[in-house]
Amino acid sequence: MRLSRSILSAGLAVFTLTSCGPSTVAQCNEFADVINQAQVFKDEFETEIDTFTQQAQGAESLGDIQTAATQYISAVDKVVGSIDSMVTSLNELELSDEQLAEYRNGYAEIITGSAQELNVAGEAMQLVANAQSETDLSNVLEEFQGKANTAFTNLQTLSQDEATLVNNINTYCGAEVPVGTDAETPETPETPTAE
User: Fold this and answer.
1) Which of 141, 161, 162, 180 sits between 20 and 30 A of 152, alpha carbons compared?
2) 113 membership: H or E segment, kind and range
């Protein structure tokens, strides 16, 4: 089995602004601080998914597959918890700038959607973890594949939406997007496959 390494795109560039009024600069910086926190949990998630992928590819028994599936579910639960905390932090931001408030709401909606799709992917993987025999595993692979493919297709769309929104926020706040960042070109998640 192969699953996506990168689900979430990059956050905002660190701002050093002079083009906006002081209030907008401060609000942009507060917004960026919250969004930039995502990089830490995204990196951790990617590391855990890499480990999962290696374990899944080297699986020689149903037990090995179940162990890898359980690790994936744990990684999803952890990143979803981090996303939920980030949404709370975003909602607590006091943004008097109407455009920034609109961007904040849009960003919160996108990452909430990402968390929902990650949960669907986790539910699909739970089917694999719950298989009690190779026959059970064989019987759930089609359902697993369908749920996982739908989730990753939706995550890809959300990732592209996030990258576009981050670029819009950076433009509005007067920050330049560093060349070669995920915000400039979102990484496309791989669709899980059963081997």
Assistant:
1) 180
2) helix 98-130
